[in-house]
């Protein structure tokens, strides 16, 4: 099968030919490089208008050359439908429709973010990896489950490349800034910046304003660049490790233009090696925006009969990867490994009675009725950052675990703490993790407990189904290391979002579980009676004045975070 791909979501005017028999991917690209500032949508669209016909004709010449003079020999035309800049996408869509009609072959509408992921799966041969997409306009973790790519975690504000590019604009460097930061960082000393991870979500706005302030205050730009790389990439590596731990998979692939950064690849490779997982990063021409990845996914879609008619082929600037019906994969496949058969060092599953378990952050050993949790140094992180995080989180965990108990939430008793060593001794609790024993009733209780925590003035910070232990009806909360004091509705909503995301990433039927969870939360937070359907009650308060966490949760879920 031979597929022509066309890409032009933002800066890369690109066309490609993929031949599934020979495996060859021929790519011709023409980048838009703004004279000053960032990407201007109108200028970028003008660039697409000029460059797309040229790159397409080069690829068609190549197609004719490699087809023994027997025409182009093309079986389908694939194009990026979104996400991306509307004016650019429309030009690419028009070009693709015209080409498909001229060649009289099917049209294939590709989600650009799924293409960043699938090219890694194609190159690695992995079955069902977690994918970290680190691109300009996005930053998220994807995993396949129940016929869709689920977003396991994502940025709460800008994409990672855009965050870096905003800093470089501030210091007067031309676009794109990523490669310049990489070069400068090699000459700099580490500078401390804010580190923001919430479960598997994260945000860049705090760190970017701190980086600009540091530069304005005279910190050498090389040092700020080093601090930026060390902090941002450690955040991405940490959430990737959390996703491996939560799903139990031992395969990670990288996608997106920021993946060209050697330091990011080094950190991810080191993290994977240490937890016995496999890591694959495509070569740079497949990491940055390119039509090769569009053609490769187009071939899979054509083989599955997933074609588009011209009237239904409109582009979509906010096309989220979790909205794509994944026709080319088997519904039975999943990123979530069966806990019974998964690699125990990769899952963090508990084996009581003397053994050792590895979570995403810590090593946990079981001794009689005690559990010793040690935040082991993470060698992928800069040592200063690593020391700071381990000490801060150990302190927070000991303090908030005890505060939660005082608020009436079951937690293990804290028996000993040593923040500088990063160790805490806890009482052993529960029979299994909630992840392996998910029921609506327990999710409901979990909702009640989180509402009590919020009522006591703090958030858990990472309430996934692996940070909850259960024993009959008892539901214990663990692992408060990412918690902090706050009364903000946004922070409360993030806790709810993290829990529901972890349920959606692992459960076959998440809907009733999330409903029960929300009903439990509402019953404590709002004093509703126990039978209220959480979603209905969320709607009810939407019309009222005082916004609460459940109402805000709907907004958090609905945010299109492509900025
Ligand atoms: C929707 C689509 O248009 C968008 N594409 C995109 O963002 O281009 P991509 O090629 O994946 O990534 C470009 C980003 O990648 C950064 N970048 C390139 N080389 C880098 C390096 N060595 N270190 C850090 N960042 C780098 C650039 O600064 C820029 O922000 C996306 O995939 O989100
Ligand atoms: N007090 C305890 N009683 C029983 N089991 C526990 C206890 N503390 C931890 N565990 C088990 O060890 C696993 C890892 O613990 P914990 O979540 O605290 O570590 P972690 O490294 O922070 O994990 P992650 O970052 O992946 O959430 C838990 O999922 C749980 O199965
Ligand atoms: Fe991209």
Automatic annotation (TrEMBL):
Organism annotation:
Halogeometricum pallidum JCM 14848
- Which coenzyme or cofactor does it need? Fe(2+)
Where is L-threonylcarbamoyladenylate bound in this sequence? 133-137, 165, 178, 182, 261
Protein name in the entry: Probable bifunctional tRNA threonylcarbamoyladenosine biosynthesis protein
Q: Which UniProt keywords apply?
A: Acyltransferase, ATP-binding, Cytoplasm, Iron, Kinase, Metal-binding, Multifunctional enzyme, Nucleotide-binding, Serine/threonine-protein kinase, Transferase, tRNA processing
Report the main location listed first in the record.
Answer: cytoplasm
Give GO terms for biological process: tRNA threonylcarbamoyladenosine modification
Q: Work out whether the entry's keyword set contains Nucleotide-binding.
A: yes
Say yes or no: keyword Acetylation present.
Answer: no
Q: What is the lineage of its organism?
A: Archaea, Methanobacteriati, Methanobacteriota, Stenosarchaea group, Halobacteria
Q: Which domain of life is it from?
A: Archaea
Positions of region (Kae1)? 1-328
Give the cofactor note text. Answer: Binds 1 Fe(2+) ion per subunit.
Domain Gcp-like: residue ranges: 24-295
């Amino acid at each position: 099968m031979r597929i022509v791909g066309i890409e032009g979501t933002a800066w890369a005017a690109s066309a490609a030919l993929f031949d599934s028999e020979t495996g060859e991917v021929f790519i011709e690209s023409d980048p838009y490089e703004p004279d000053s500032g960032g990407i201007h949508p109108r200028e970028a669209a003008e660039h697409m208008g000029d460059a797309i016909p040229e790159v397409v004709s080069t690829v068609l010449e190549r197609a004719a050359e490699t087809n023994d003079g027997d025409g182009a020999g093309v079986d389908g035309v694939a194009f990026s439908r979104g996400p991306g800049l509307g004016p650019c996408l429309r030009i690419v869509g028009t070009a693709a429709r015209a080409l498909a009609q001229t060649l009289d072959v099917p049209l294939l509408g590709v989600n650009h973010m799924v293409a960043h992921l699938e090219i890694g799966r194609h190159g690695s041969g992995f079955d069902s990896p977690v994918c970290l997409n680190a691109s300009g306009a996005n930053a998220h973790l994807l995993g396949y489950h129940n016929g869709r790519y689920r977003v396991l975690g994502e940025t709460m504000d800008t994409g990672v490349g855009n965050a870096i590019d905003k800093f470089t604009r501030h210091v007067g460097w031309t676009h794109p800034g990523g490669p310049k930061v990489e070069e400068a960082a090699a000459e700099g000393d580490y500078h401390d910046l804010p580190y923001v991870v919430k479960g598997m979500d994260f945000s860049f706005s705090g760190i970017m304003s701190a980086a600009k302030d540091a530069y304005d205050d005279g910190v050498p730009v090389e040092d700020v660049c080093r601090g930026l790389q060390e902090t941002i990439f450690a955040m991405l590596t940490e959430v990737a490790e959390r996703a491996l731990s939560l799903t139990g998979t031992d395969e990670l692939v990288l996608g997106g233009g920021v993946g060209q950064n050697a330091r990011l690849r080094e950190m991810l490779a080191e993290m994977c090696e240490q937890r016995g997982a496999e890591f694959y990063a495509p070569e740079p021409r497949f990491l940055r925006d390119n039509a090769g990845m569009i053609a490769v996914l187009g071939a899979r879609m054509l083989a599955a009969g997933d074609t588009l008619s011209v009237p239904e082929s409109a582009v979509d600037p906010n096309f989220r990867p979790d909205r794509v019906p994944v026709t080319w994969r088997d519904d039975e496949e999943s990123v979530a490994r069966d806990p019974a058969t998964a690699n125990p060092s990769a899952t963090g599953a508990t084996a009581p009675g003397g053994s050792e378990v590895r979570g995403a952050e810590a090593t946990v050993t079981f001794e009689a009725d005690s559990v010793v949790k040690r935040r082991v140094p993470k060698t992928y992180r800069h040592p200063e950052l690593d020391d700071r995080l381990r000490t801060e989180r150990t302190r927070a965990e000991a303090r908030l675990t005890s505060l939660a108990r005082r608020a009436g939430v079951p937690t293990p008793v804290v028996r000993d703490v040593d923040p500088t060593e990063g160790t805490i001794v806890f009482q052993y609790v529960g029979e299994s993790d909630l992840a392996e024993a998910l029921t609506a009733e327990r999710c409901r209780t979990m909702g009640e407990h989180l509402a009590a925590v919020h009522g006591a003035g703090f958030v858990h910070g990472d309430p996934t189904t692996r940070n909850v232990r259960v024993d009959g009806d008892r539901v214990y909360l663990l692992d408060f290391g990412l918690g902090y004091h706050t009364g903000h509705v946004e922070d409360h909503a993030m806790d709810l979002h993290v829990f529901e995301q972890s349920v959606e990433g692992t459960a076959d039927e998440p809907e009733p579980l999330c409903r029960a969870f929300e009903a439990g939360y509402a019953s404590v937070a709002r004093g509703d009676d126990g039978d209220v359907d959480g979603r209905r009650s969320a709607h009810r308060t939407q019309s009222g004045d005082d916004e609460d966490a459940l109402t805000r949760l709907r907004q958090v879920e609905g945010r299109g975070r492509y900025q």
